[in-house]
Write a structure and sequence with these properties.
- With about 290 residues, the protein is mostly beta strands.
- A hairpin with a 3-residue loop joins β6 and β7.
């Protein structure tokens, strides 16, 4: 019995110590953030795709260095000094772009990288998501909850080419102008600067067609579309340019299918082209199918 009593006393002492430590840690946590505000940001993903993680940049509207915090695709929760902040949210694992400082201050700009093989073109981009919050007021010793809505900053096109020519086509390359060079994360405003983007098409013997894709930040200005062919005797020829400005820049919000024909110079040969534009929403995408 005496041994049992000792065991009970020992368990009771452990419980008291644990409770004491828990209370002390909670008090220390509250004391260490005295005067700060607890901010909870929920990320509401309207689409099904999302990155692995998200970074959060907090800019005090009075100036000073930004506060950087790592978050998740679900959001961020943590303490910040009481102030009014502008918040920039983006994923770190972007593809084909650099994340730049906007006006030398805010991390709020993605810029497409230059194509390593052709300086007149930019790389294809992918996996770029962003959101922002303006004027988030954090009073001292308060809890503030906000919701942000990340957007997909990438516009994608799928290109399928079928050439009805007398000679066998060995290779095709798609070239498109009017690809946006830079884009702001918070408000999705695109720069006026544009560049070219190109992509080699891969032959699919099952479909007897060449297929490729274009992935960029968007389109502005004139968008001439061209296809370059190389025949099996190494002769190369380019189709006459086709202006896709109406489709890619002045595109309707609803889905639309358009029919075009690509012509070869000094030849009666041609490529029939069907463009299917899917619903384009902020951060959404479209598709081009060339037949």
């Amino acid at each position: 019995m005496r041994n049992i009593s000792i065991i009970y006393i020992f368990i009771l002492l452990i419980g008291c110590l644990t409770t004491s430590c828990t209370r002390r840690s909670l008090l220390d946590e509250q004391h260490s953030h005295s005067g700060d505000a607890l901010l909870k940001i929920k990320l509401n993903w309207k689409g099904s795709s999302k990155p692995q993680s998200m970074d959060f940049y907090f800019y005090n509207q009075k100036g000073g260095d930004p506060i950087y915090r790592e978050g998740t695709v679900n959001g961020y929760e943590g303490y910040l000094p009481a102030a009014t902040y502008d918040v920039v949210i983006c994923n770190p694992d972007v593809v084909g772009v650099d994340i730049k400082d906007y006006q030398g201050y805010e991390v709020d700009l993605v810029e497409a990288n230059t194509d390593a093989e052709d300086e007149s073109c930019i790389e294809h981009v992918d996996n770029i998501y962003g959101a922002g919050l303006k004027g988030v007021v954090l009073p001292a010793d308060s809890t503030v909850e906000k919701t942000a809505y990340p957007e997909n900053l990438v516009k994608k096109l799928t290109v399928i080419l079928r050439a009805e020519t007398r000679k066998k086509v060995e290779h095709m390359q798609v070239n498109l102008s009017g690809a946006v060079l830079r884009k702001r994360i918070v408000d999705l405003v695109m720069s006026d600067e544009t560049s070219n983007i190109k992509s080699d098409a891969i032959y699919d013997d099952r479909e007897d067609s060449f297929k490729t894709g274009i992935s960029t930040l968007g389109f502005r200005g004139k968008c001439p579309f061209n296809v370059h062919l190389m025949y099996d005797d190494n002769e190369t020829v380019s189709c006459l340019p086709l202006d896709l400005t109406e489709v890619l820049v002045l595109f309707p919000e609803e889905e639309k299918t358009l029919e075009y024909t690509l012509f070869l110079p000094d030849s009666d040969e041609e490529i029939k082209m069907t463009i299917r534009v899917h619903q384009w929403t902020p951060g959404g995408g479209g598709e081009i199918i060339v037949q």
